[in-house]
Every structure is written in C-alpha cells, then in structure tokens.
Amino acid sequence: MSFQFFLTVGTYFFQFFNFMIIANVLIRIVAPKSNGIIVQWIKGMTEPILAPVRKFATFKAVGFAPLTVVFIVEFLVTPLYVFRWIQLFQYQEEK
Asked: Is the pLDDT of residue 54 over 90?
C-alpha cells in the first residue's frame, strides 16, 4: 500500500464525514422527528462530535456547531492529515 492510497482514503473519509454532518442538518430541518435506520445511523455518527461543540457554538438559540465542525475538519484536520503523510513520505525517501 502506497502513500497515495492512505492520503486518498483519509481525505475521502473527511469528506464523507462532512457530508454526514450536512445530511444531519438537512434531516433536522426537513424531518426533525424521523427515526429511520439511516437517520439513526447518521445521528449516531455525528452527534458525538457535534454535542461538545454545541456548548460553545450556540448564539441566541442559533446553533453553529455543524458549520464549526465542517470548518475545523476542512481547514484544520484535513490539511494536518495531508501534511503529516507528506512528511512521512519524505522521511522514507531520505532513508
């Protein structure tokens, strides 16, 4: 397995997680009381991340937790992940 494989899989994972957060927001807007299997799975995967952020990202009854998490993943986590894999790859090339 190569460097490019892990970099691609990790990047797709973060994109998938962002889409799940967006799906969670849309579900809350369109059908807030739905309890389907897929809805429960999406909420189960995103709520552990969104719940702590809600404490800090709620202003006057408007929740910015999903937006905050998407920004953190897109502009902090993903670049750090990519940067770390590039460092590891360059270190292995030097050996």
From this structure: no
